[in-house]
Task: inverse folding
């Protein structure tokens, strides 16, 4: 019973964690990336389409990564190289992802709404669990990102240039290079997150199925700053909230309320955390 | 011996502005070479060319006799240059050690960041040059003076042979500045060449070996420090001599306070708060290192922030009154934050000049808007009276030079002839010529019987203008001096919390 609950927490956490790790890399590099929502959707869609066409879930995952990296370039080129406001571009790509996946879904899969088929193979479960093989990858990547940021030269430089790009430039660091890399890597991670969402958590694609998880990831990044472990905590919180939502639905809570629960809980925690951290900062300055 | 660096015929143009006009500069090994000039004289441009931030339109740079072309600061750093910027460019999230080694990080055999040896290296440098600092503290929590020390350590870590310091003492107390110069001296003795960009002539005369003066992008003087004088340098900088501001004794030494603060707390909740007053016809100076409580004090006096204790304006308790009420009662305020608080940079000079007076019947149009002609007339009057140099009053304020923008703020605030004026850092980022005019304006306000509170971290300014000087340190008033007693040493000691 509790193990089942823990399992559903982990399952719900994984896609958000992928996206949030991407967001964290961008935040560290000084790009406020709110395109995660659209990129998750892009990954989820590509994974299902290619998984369906080729009959291989892993090819679907691979295609999701490639497609989402390309999709992320739509953000990185204007925002990093051409000096456009990343928020504006990101809003655009989020809308584009929603529209484009709906359109292509009708063109390629021949129907709107939700697509699933017995031909569509999900990612295989790990032995003795109901988790897909991508799930542990999300958690391992968290540790890897933490290690990389703290213990390597390039990680140190990435953290540096996020805060003070001018200063980094005057040290001769290639700010735009790091930023492109961060945004495109975030794309790859969202590709994984999306694939996990459509081929791991479930085995189907439905329009707008990212359902705000990319936004939750953005919130998690804002909560965590550049600490991957705090980020993990924030994502787990969302996972718990979502799993709890399912539970409550089972216990008779109206579906709409259950759907809203994870977002409400996350929002509440964000506000509380924010209040605490400002209070702490105030104490320090006095 | 070949000079460490030789710039010849450097010309750099920004649009129609000639920032550097065929400038020559020779930097010898082991010398402290001051580069002085007013704001906009081209000092920073010249240094940016040397440091690879700008590419010159014409001219050559020789490093140890060999021609070099720096395409970026990275190239300059590789060639042994280091720069301590005026606005300290550090990464607040990272520790001192991380900041110092960034860009030239020690790595372990496996290619990972070697944090232990980074900390050791920084501690070692800090000890060798007498620049103590906690290597593993995050930079974000350090006071400004210490941050600059970190910048210096950064350049030392990279073994810079030519060190450029841009206005290094603007964030330091006199004692810290003296210490910095001692370190620079040591460095110069071991063969490092030091380029000191500054507009403080006292520093130049005390510490440098040679001086190059720039004006309007051209070299207007080259001096050996030992053979020159402040007057000679000023003449080269502004092309004329400075007249000292006239000063008469106060007429009504016992008049009641026009502005009074009693028990106004500036931070710490256990403090009793500051208590002082300003009389009509008097300039009270508040000296202190930036961040000693100036901001909360000004906020409490002007109504821009909360106030504890009591604030009285012309005998009326205004502790909880809003900004508009206080202004109506007779308060004017010249903020230090020119772009944020003092002006709306995107609006025209004329609009900035009438800001705050928009409700007076004379300026108000029939539909509640501004009457354009009246605004223009008022602006034109202020532009002439206060000597603001501008093409027209219709240009956006942001196109004015720092000195002229500041004069515009002073014009707006002083022309109202309010009984009380609060002036904060009036000459920050303003050139010597405009400084002189601004000081004259403030002195004139005093002659007019206005009560002036002058907050400045520039000791010479406070000493030149104030009748009394109060010293702020960590949110408390720690000392008070009459003008005659306010020596640099006494103020400096009080500013750093050394009991007077």
Result:
């Amino acid at each position: 019973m509790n193990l089942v609950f823990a399992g559903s927490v982990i399952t719900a956490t994984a896609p958000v964690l992928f996206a949030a790790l991407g967001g964290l890399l961008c935040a560290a590099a000084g790009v406020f990336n709110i395109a995660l929502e659209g990129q998750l959707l892009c990954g989820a869609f590509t994974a299902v389409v290619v998984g369906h066409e080729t009959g291989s879930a892993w090819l679907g995952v691979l295609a999701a990564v490639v497609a989402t990296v390309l999709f992320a370039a739509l953000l990185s080129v204007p925002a990093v190289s051409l000096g456009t406001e990343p928020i504006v571009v990101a809003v655009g790509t989020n809308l584009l992802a929603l529209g484009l996946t709906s359109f292509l879904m009708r063109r390629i899969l021949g129907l709107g709404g939700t697509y699933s088929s017995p031909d569509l193979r999900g990612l295989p479960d790990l032995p003795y669990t109901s988790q897909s093989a991508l799930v542990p990858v999300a958690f391992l990547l968290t540790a890897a990102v933490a290690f990389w940021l703290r213990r390597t030269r390039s990680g140190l430089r990435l953290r540096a240039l996020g805060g003070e790009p001018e200063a980094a430039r005057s040290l001769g660091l290639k700010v735009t290079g790091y930023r492109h890399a961060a945004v495109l890597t975030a794309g790859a991670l969202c590709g994984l997150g999306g694939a996990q969402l459509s081929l791991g958590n479930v085995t189907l694609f439905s329009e707008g199925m990212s359902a705000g998880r990319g936004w939750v990831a953005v919130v998690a990044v804002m909560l965590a700053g550049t600490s991957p472990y705090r980020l993990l905590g924030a994502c787990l919180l969302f996972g718990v909230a979502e799993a709890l939502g399912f539970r409550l639905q089972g216990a008779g809570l109206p579906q709409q309320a259950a759907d809203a629960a994870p977002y409400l809980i996350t929002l509440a925690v964000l506000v509380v955390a924010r209040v605490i951290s400002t209070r702490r900062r105030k104490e320090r300055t006095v | 011996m070949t000079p460490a660096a030789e710039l010849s015929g450097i010309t750099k143009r920004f649009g129609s502005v000639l920032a550097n006009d065929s400038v020559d500069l020779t930097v010898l090994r082991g010398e402290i070479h001051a580069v002085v000039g007013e704001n906009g004289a081209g000092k920073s441009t010249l240094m940016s060319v040397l440091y690879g931030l700008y590419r010159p339109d014409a001219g050559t740079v020789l490093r140890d006799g060999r021609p070099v072309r720096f395409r970026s600061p990275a190239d300059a750093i590789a060639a042994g240059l280091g720069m301590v910027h005026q606005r300290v460019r550090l990464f607040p999230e990272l520790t001192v050690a991380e900041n110092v080694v960034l860009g030239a990080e020690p790595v372990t055999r496996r290619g990972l960041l070697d944090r232990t040896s980074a900390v050791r290296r920084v501690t070692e440098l800090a000890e060798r040059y007498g620049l103590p600092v906690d290597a593993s503290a995050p930079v974000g929590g350090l006071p400004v003076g210490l941050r600059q020390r970190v910048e210096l350590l950064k350049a030392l870590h990279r073994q810079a042979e030519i060190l450029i310091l841009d206005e290094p003492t603007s964030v330091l107390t006199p004692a810290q500045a003296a210490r910095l110069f001692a370190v620079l001296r040591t460095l110069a003795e071991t063969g490092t060449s030091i380029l000191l960009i500054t507009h403080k002539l006292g520093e130049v005369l005390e510490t440098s070996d040679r001086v190059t003066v720039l004006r309007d992008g051209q070299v207007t003087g080259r001096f050996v420090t030992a053979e020159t004088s402040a007057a000679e340098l000023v003449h080269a900088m502004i092309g004329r001599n400075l007249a000292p501001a006239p000063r008469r004794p106060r007429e009504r030494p016992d008049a009641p306070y026009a502005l009074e603060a009693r028990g106004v707390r500036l931070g710490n909740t256990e403090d009793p708060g500051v208590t002082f007053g300003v009389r009509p016809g008097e300039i009270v100076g508040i000296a202190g290192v930036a961040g000693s409580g100036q901001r909360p004090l000004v906020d409490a006096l002007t109504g821009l922030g909360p106030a504890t204790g009591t604030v009285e304006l012309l005998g009326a308790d205004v502790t909880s009154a809003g900004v508009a009420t206080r202004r109506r009662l007779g308060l004017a305020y010249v903020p230090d934050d020119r772009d944020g608080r003092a002006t709306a940079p995107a609006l025209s000079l004329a609009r900035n000049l009438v800001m705050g007076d928009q409700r007076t019947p004379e300026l108000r149009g029939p539909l509640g808007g501004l009457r354009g002609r009246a605004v223009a007339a008022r602006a034109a009057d202020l532009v002439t009276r206060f000597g603001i140099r501008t093409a027209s009053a219709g240009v956006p304020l942001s196109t004015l030079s720092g000195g002229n923008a500041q004069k515009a703020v002073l014009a707006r605030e002083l022309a109202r002839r309010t009984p009380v004026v609060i002036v904060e850092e009036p000459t920050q980022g303003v050139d010597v010529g405009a400084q002189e005019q601004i000081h004259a304006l403030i002195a004139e306000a005093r002659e007019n019987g206005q009560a002036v509170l002058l907050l400045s971290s520039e000791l010479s300014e406070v000493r030149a203008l104030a009748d009394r000087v109060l010293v702020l340190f960590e949110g408390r008033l720690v000392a008070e001096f009459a003008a005659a007693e306010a020596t640099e040493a006494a103020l400096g000691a009080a500013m750093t919390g050394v009991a007077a």
